[in-house]
Amino acid sequence: MDNFRRFAGRCLVYVGLLVGFGTSRLLYAQSSSPSDSVSRVAASFRLGTIRILESGPLSAEVVQAALPFRPGDRLTAERLQAGLEAVARRYAEAGYPLARIIIRQLDQDPVHPDRLLLALTVEPGPRLYLDRIVLRGTRRTRPDFVARLLNLQIGRRLRPFNPERMAERLTATGLFRRVDPPELYLTGDTTAALVFPLEEASPGSFDLLLGYQPPGAGAGGLVGSGHLQLRHLFGEGRELDVQLERLPGRVSRFRLEAADPFLLGTAFSLRLGFAGRQQDSTYNRQDFRLVLGYRFPSGLQLTGSWRRETTRPGPAGLRLEGGRQRIARGMATLFGVGLRWEQLDHPLAPRQGLTLTVRAERGRKTRSALQVANGDTSRARERIRQDRLEATLRLYSPLADRLVLVGGGELALLRADRYDVADLYRLGGARSLRGYNEEQFVGHRTARLLAEIRYLLTPPTFIFGFLDLAT
Fold this sequence. Notes:
Elements: H1 2-18, H2 36-42, E1 46-54, H3 60-66, H4 77-93, E2 100-108, E3 115-123, E4 129-136, H5 143-149, H6 163-172, E5 176-179, E6 183-186, E7 191-200, E8 204-213, E9 221-233, E10 238-247, E11 251-260, E12 268-279, E13 283-295, E14 300-313, E15 320-321, E16 324-325, E17 329-344, E18 353-373, E19 376-398, E20 403-416, E21 425-427, E22 441-443, E23 445-456, E24 462-470
Parallel strand pairs: 1-3, 4-7
Antiparallel strand pairs: 2-3, 5-7, 6-7, 8-9, 9-10, 10-11, 11-12, 12-13, 13-14, 14-17, 15-16, 17-18, 18-19, 19-20, 20-23, 21-22, 23-24
Helix pairs in contact: 1-2, 1-4
């Protein structure tokens, strides 16, 4: 009996530390672990009956479901503390972050002396409304931007309130070098302020890679790439991305994108893009794109897009093959819809989560090319239909502390009345089918499966082995 009293007394002390809230600041106190002797004594007791005497707005069944132990389980001070913390988090997510969990009974069962009777009462406290957001340690970031990232609204109920999850979501954006869980300060009887300690990451990055390809079948040449990325412009998460690549075979690519994740302070996003490709002296292709999206609180984003593609033949593309011009001059307009779903614990080196992107487009293409028939040269014009479907999936699953399994695939389909070389999909190089020459494979239907084993070093750095399979 003396051992039981010592165990019960230690548990009650833990409860006091767990639910001790100040009048002006919410504290999640850290309590020390019980001694080894108390742990050994606690191991001899099993839990008998659990009773929820009062639970406020949540049902007793919800409270019991939040507890990580059940009747018959061994009860220790650590498990009891973890259970009460779980109940407190459940009430905070429901909009009651000041809830107090009180142990009304912790006695031996008179019928089964080796079992404990546990009775809890929950005092939910008032519903809290968000008065303001305060950022500590930032220079560019605006409070309303953080509110939109976390789906919070000033003057509305503070629900859900989960400090750890809020910190994880801000970390996952990649815009901050350090994110600590927010602190909650009461500003009135039912109003509170959230204080976020943040350290902003660098707003830009630049890399340049140059090399020389020795002569093979033809002349040698300069190859390489340059990439400039600016993120979190003006403290609102806006992006500017510029990339220039000089590939083997006198192929050049240029890409420019600008994006606003919260257009005019709303849940809509806007992305503008331009992509250009010079395929030696065969053809030049330009692609203008506008994408308007809407982001739901769950992380799902729906998009609508408009795209204009222009293809112009070069000197080599104007040559006739089989009585037809090798590369036709073309202009296509496509409209599309898509979705993107992302749930990652880290934006660059995730251990768990998934990303899914699907885009479908339909439009018309006007093409014009010279052709020779019966010794006469004429220009043939036609209008054809184009349908495109593109999808990308990545799944991340932890295997061990630093070991992560990555699986997924990519699918790209083009259906048209006539296929032009400039419209086809290309595989090969560093981005896909790693180990093959750059853009070695070309087709109007491509599919790729991949698997990686990653060993995480210091995020976002990792080493990995991979297997790619494509058709």
